[in-house]
TrEMBL record:
<dbReference type="InterPro" id="IPR042261">
    <property type="entry name" value="Lsr2-like_dimerization"/>
</dbReference>
<dbReference type="InterPro" id="IPR036625">
    <property type="entry name" value="E3-bd_dom_sf"/>
</dbReference>
<dbReference type="Pfam" id="PF11774">
    <property type="entry name" value="Lsr2"/>
</dbReference>
<dbReference type="GO" id="GO:0003677">
    <property type="term" value="F:DNA binding"/>
</dbReference>
<feature type="domain" description="Lsr2 dimerization">
    <location>
        <begin position="1"/>
        <end position="57"/>
    </location>
</feature>
<protein>
    <submittedName>
        <fullName>Lsr2 family protein</fullName>
    </submittedName>
</protein>
<dbReference type="InterPro" id="IPR024412">
    <property type="entry name" value="Lsr2_dim_dom"/>
</dbReference>
<dbReference type="GO" id="GO:0016746">
    <property type="term" value="F:acyltransferase activity"/>
</dbReference>
Amino acid sequence: MARKTESYLVDDFDGSKPANTIPFSYRGAEYEIDLSETNAREFDKDMARYIDAGRRVRNGRGMRRSEERHQKLQAARAWLREQGYDIGKQGRIPKAWLEEFEKFEKAQGQRDDTAQTTGTDG
């Protein structure tokens, strides 16, 4: 006997299906909500007045988050290769490896801060 298990998204409000995941942010926090087509249209309608009155912003360097994340992952891949990790040009990077890179970045940032504050006036 064969057994088949299916997984699908359901609307977070009414449990209907199919649903699509809609990302949004509010007061600096990122959210996702799964909504049916009907509820997604209602969400879009409700948000439209705020979006129309507001302005689109980018982070301080003028880069979208996805671009910034892409650059960070590319830097992580390069650093991991330098450290001897066998990592491809694409695909998921193991969490433990990313944590190692983040530790390196943090230590590097602290060293840069220390170098700037301990400089001499020549």
